[in-house]
Amino acid sequence: MLSDIEMIGVLIMKLISWNVNGLRAVLKKDFLTTFKALDADFFCLQETKMQADQVVLDLPGYHQYFNYAERKGYSGTAIFTKATPLNVSYGLGIEVHDHEGRVITLEYPDFYLLTCYTPNSQSELKRLPYRLEWDEAFRHYVHELSQKKSVVFCGDLNVAHEEIDLKNPKTNHHNAGFSDAERASFTTLLSQGFTDSFRYLHPDQTDAYSWWSYRFHAREHNAGWRIDYFVVSDDLQSKIQDATILADIYGSDHCPVELDLSI
Known about the structure:
Elements: E1 5-7, E2 10-19, H1 23-27, H2 31-38, E3 42-46, E4 63-67, E5 77-81, E6 87-90, E7 103-107, E8 111-117, H3 128-146, E9 150-156, H4 180-191, E10 194-196, H5 197-201, E11 228-233, E12 240-245, E13 257-262
Parallel strand pairs: 2-3, 8-9
Antiparallel strand pairs: 1-2, 2-13, 3-5, 4-5, 6-7, 7-8, 9-11, 10-11, 12-13
Helix pairs in contact: 3-4
């Protein structure tokens, strides 16, 4: 059962997404206290950086699903959910893309929920060609799902879409996460029937970021990037009740983002 959060007589699902930059590391930084305080119906993680059995979590009331990278200490995703899914799948179903534990899909009667950790293009954009191959495969995957039922996908998508989505767009123009190719790729994804929930509700909000470098006191000065998203099928736009960035929560170089969706 989903938690009974009521707003104007409407039942609301609370979803959280967080790139924890190492689940074992963030567990030492009060993760469980934060997890319990947020009390989400769905809690999605990226960059768990762990293998099976390295962490055993006691999360009463939650089902736990993990996708591990083959490379140790790298990538990885997880979803903790109060609602039992109809089906769970891991990856995109494409062998070349399914070694790094980047996607988990849960199917429910009325929608699909995905957590995603998009590959980083890396310094000097040396992994950009692979990143764009990934983007195309992911677009096709979520488009196919959306032909069956509504889709909600979240995670560290490793792109700041517009200049408003990072502090220093001019100096970062050709850097990973803000290259023209990556931004155009995300535009293409949205054009295929998807909505960036935060920008839908807050089209002009500035200084709203979800990731800050550990260098140069970036978080202290709020010199950040918004690269963590909740994206929903366009048919769910009217069900978006709130989309927020929880910048006061620490423990990672990312902060959690939240989506409240009516059902």
